[in-house]
Amino acid sequence: MKAKAGFTLIELLAVVTIIIILSGAALASFLNYQQRRQAQEDAANVADRLRTVQIKAVAVEIPAGCNSVTNYSVTFAATSLAVAATCPGAGSVAVAGLALTLANSVFQSSPFAITFDSRTVSASPRTINICGNGNRYQVSVNEAANVSRPVFVAGGC
């Protein structure tokens, strides 16, 4: 009898099963990476926004509705960040163009505020924890008004 060339059904099923298992593991890794990346992107946006406020405070940039400015205050609540300038005679003036809403994360320990003082080029020091999809990032502001890059913190939220 002549031997037939090809694969048996059992061999084909074994190969297909191995391929499905490997692709499932790859998909799980990709989704985990995607979730971590979304939280990292939110943390980077917060750090960038804080640097923008820092620059405006140091440059003593006067927003619309003010004649002078003494400081900029950044208020954090749940998923939003709001910026206001303190103007002598006018009080607190919201700077709407600097507001930020996080897409995939929340601020831990909110509400709280950070003040960037235009007169002394200083800030109220604070570490901001941004939690998204079980991943936690920290952004720090020191007394000299310097803003750190986002840092991943192991252990989750």
Question: Which helices and strands appear, and what pairs or packs with what?
Answer:
Blueprint: H1 9-58, E1 71-77, E2 80-87, E3 91-94, E4 100-101, E5 106-107, E6 112-117, E7 122-123, E8 126-132, E9 135-141, E10 151-153
Antiparallel strand pairs: 1-2, 1-6, 2-3, 2-4, 5-8, 6-7, 8-9, 9-10
Description of the molecule:
With 157 residues, the chain is an alpha+beta fold. It has a single domain (12-153), classed as minor pseudopilin epsh domain (minor pseudopilin epsh fold), CATH 3.55.40. It has one helix and ten strands. Strand 8 (126-132) and strand 9 form a beta hairpin. It is rod-shaped. The chain starts with 8 loop residues before the first helix and ends with a strand.
Task: Give a nutshell description of this structure.
The protein is an alpha+beta fold. 32% of the residues lie in helices and 31% in strands.
Give me some keywords for this one.
4-stranded antiparallel sheet; rod-shaped; 6-stranded antiparallel sheet; 10 strands
Distance between the termini: 67 Å
Fold-level CATH name: minor pseudopilin epsh fold
The portion of residues forming beta strands comes to 25-35%
Number of separate strands: 10
Unreliable stretches (pLDDT < 50, length at least 5) are none
Over all CA atoms, what is the radius of gyration?
25 Å
Topology pattern, helix = H, strand = E: HEEEEEEEEEE
For the biggest sheet, the summary is:
6 strands, antiparallel
The tally of domains stands at: 1
**CATH architecture heading:** 3-Layer(bab) Sandwich
The structural class is: alpha+beta
Q: How would you describe the oligomerization state of the chains in this entry?
A: single chain
What is the helix tally?
A: 1
- Can you say what the CATH homologous superfamily is? minor pseudopilin epsh domain
The coarse silhouette is rod-shaped
